[in-house]
Design goal:
The complex is a heterodimer.
Chain A (H helix, E strand, L loop, with lengths): L17 H11 L6 E7 L6 E7 L5 H18 L8 E4 L5 H9 L2 E8 L2 E8 L28 H11 L5 E8 L5 E8 L5 H12 L9 H8 L11 E3 L2 H8 L4 E5 L5 E4 L10 H5 L2 H30 L7 H12 L5 H20 L3 H21 L5 H14 L5 H39 L1 E2 L2 E2 L44 H7 L1
Antiparallel strand pairs in A: 1-2, 2-4, 3-5, 4-5, 6-7, 7-9, 8-10, 9-10, 11-12
Chain B lengths: L8 H12 L3 H13 L3 H26 L4 H9 L1 H33 L6 H16 L3 H11 L2 H9 L18 H16 L4 H5 L7 H9 L1 H19 L2 H4 L5 H8 L8 H31 L6 H17 L3 H9 L1 H28 L1
Classes of the chains: A alpha+beta, B mainly alpha.
Chain lengths: ~500, ~350
Amino acid sequence: MESASFSKKVSVHQTQSIQELQEQVSYYSGNTNDLVMLQIHHESIERTSIMVYIEPLIDSVKLEELLEWSKEMKWLTNERVTSSKIQSYDGTLMFEQLVRQLLEGEAFLICMEEDQWRIEGIKIPKQLSRAIEEPKSEQIVRGSHSGFNESLASNIYQIRQRLKTSHLVIKYFQIGKESNTTSALIYVDNIANLMIVEEFIRRIQSIDVDIAHSVGFLEEMLEDNCFSPFPQFLVTERADRVTGNLSEGRIAFMLDGSPTAIIGPANFFSFYQSPDDYNGRFIIGTFYRLLRLCSFLVALLLPAMYIAIISFHFEVIPEALTLPTKRAVEGIPYPPLFEALILEITIELIREATIRLPFPVGQTIGVVGGLVIGDAVVNAGFVSNVMVIVVALTAISSFVVPSIEMNSTVRILRFPFMLLATLFGFYGVTVGLTLLLIHLIRLESLGMPYLSPFAPFHKSGMRDTILRMPSWLQSTRPAETMTLNKIRQGFSKRWHYANKK
Amino acid sequence: MQIKNEVTGWQLFYLVVQTQVGIGVLSMQKDISIVSRNDAWISLAIGGILIQLLLLVFLWLLLRAGEVDYFILLEKAFGQIIGKLLAACYLAYFIYILLVSNLSFIKVISEWIYMDTPRWILMLLFLIPAVYCASGKVVHIARFSMLVSIILPVLVMLLIPVYSTPNYTHFFPIGSEGAGQILKGLEATLLAYIGFESFLYFSKYVRSNREKELKKAAFSTLFVTVFYLFLLISTQVYFHIEELVIVPYAVLYILKSLSFVIVDRIDLIFLSLWIVIVLTSFVNFLFIASNESKNLFNLKSHKRPIIFIVFAVFVTSLFIKEKQEIIGVQTALPAVAIIFTVILPLGTLCFYLLFRKEKEI
């Protein structure tokens, strides 16, 4: 402490002089060095005022402009001015509040006038953010290529641009005792079920962390069952995906500093939808969606089925295939599980290695890992070539899933299935599948069933889960969001029938 | 948000269907054919119709009794002591059913695929998912039953190749065994239909729009009858009656002989799928039994009784190893089943309704 007489004051009017005020502000902001306190004199008026701000958080060009402007307006005429950027406070302002606002990029102009403190807060935070670009993990062929960036304001701007409705509600929450990160809950209040919104808010409010790193970090605290391998929130960096889900009655949650939005209540099938499905023709969209759902089964079960057949049920292979398979498998010294594990782990290694490398190097690793190892391992007689086919097919199928979360889930889940198949054959696989199915049935996202259009069964839900019906036929919103506003649209093909008449 | 602990009419329909369709499907053809010979299908049809009528009577009585748990009804109808005693008998009956279902399933799977795997492992693999499923809420079980019903049409499709070379002469002469044998066959038929009474126990979960929804579900046995008839006729078309009385699992034999381009031995794949169907009927009975014991012993949750019941079933099954012993355990089933699924429920419902009427007057 600089002086012996120093004592902690709570609000501004408890201090007597500029000198004391400076000490207090400096104390409350932890005597940090980037806190700037400028003394400002003006010739026409006889008084001293100080300007307080945290330098890196302030847009200095704007500060200059505003200072000039306010000098002309206020310091000469002595009138108080408020604008969208300038806010007046009086002496009752708490120091804690003042410092918090300093940290949000506000500059304060403080002066003493007739024994009264006059405080002007000027909001000029520096806004630096990445340009709006296509998210690398969710690239699509057709449709909008814009994605979120790290600035919450810019992300909300993108959503508001797409949904210009007065029903779009954004609720801010401060998360993190130390980081004070702004987060936003976004929903459309005449579509989303407000009971679910309330539940979401209840969960957000119970978050008690020091620092909110990212959305993924908070997701574990918000989701219904964090011990489940399945993601219970849809994670996306695409604005069009968020608006699409908002219009179906789901709720999005975003955090300042994270380019990702999490969307709930999600269901299993929403992870298999891609914006591409809607931008192309519906037959093709349906085909690719079915393909993706089949790829889930292939990625999950193919190695397990192969192991089960090789080690338990060889008789399932039709006669014509028996000899080639037998020949391939015969020379291998290991049990099929070990064989599969070698290859699976290799593929996981290649994936993990290439993901952080620059693109050209990554490709080289892919070639070395995939082609060279794959070929050599068969020639060396460690792994049968049928197993290489099986594992490669599985790997490709697991990457078909549009969502990265679900993709990792599938890749993790196939290991227990392989183990079950080794130990108990088809029976083991079925038992594993049954457990998985029961788990999925019991799983909930924000209290809504996860396997929704199937369990509980909704006939109308099929139109946009395994199939992708023409958009003019999808006139109701999905039932799993429990929306009260079920009718999405009218009949857009009326012209067609009018022509016929 | 909490899910309502409520079941819709269609869900109840599939709950009842899945409780009925179990391991019996595989051995039913032989059991009925031994008694009614080539008129087995008539026995099956008559049995189905009778049980369907019985279910309609249940429906009629239930709608009058109101939204009550069947086991509470027992107490209300016969007084607390006799009611509790009867409920305890029911619990024993359910454990018996679970035991029989577990044993016959393990018998099929260890005879057909896993000759060398220890029985206790097969049992554990069967019981673990059952415990996991039954410990959920009734909605979860209903959804599971509904979802799993997709497997039923799969079996129908797999059996269609049988009709490429059908031999309809196997049915003739119709009625050659006489009415006596056909009616005798009903006893074997009943075994396949056991589970229809789950309508009584699950109906209390149907709350909204009760009359209409219960009516939908009451026709579940009609569906099961048609399904069973299809299976039986398919096997009768394929096997001569002299073969049919020897072949233990006719459907599996048919599937074994069929061969497709991509896979051989569909019976192995099919039996693995059928595990799930067997599991649902086990789970449904387990859920009923545990919920009943929850009421009986005034417990908070139905999870603890599940562990006890399954443990009892598991340990008892360990001691019954020989084929003859397993068959011996099953012999009492028809008689016991008639008491617990036909006589007692009818008696209870009538008694309760009469008793209540007197009170009102």
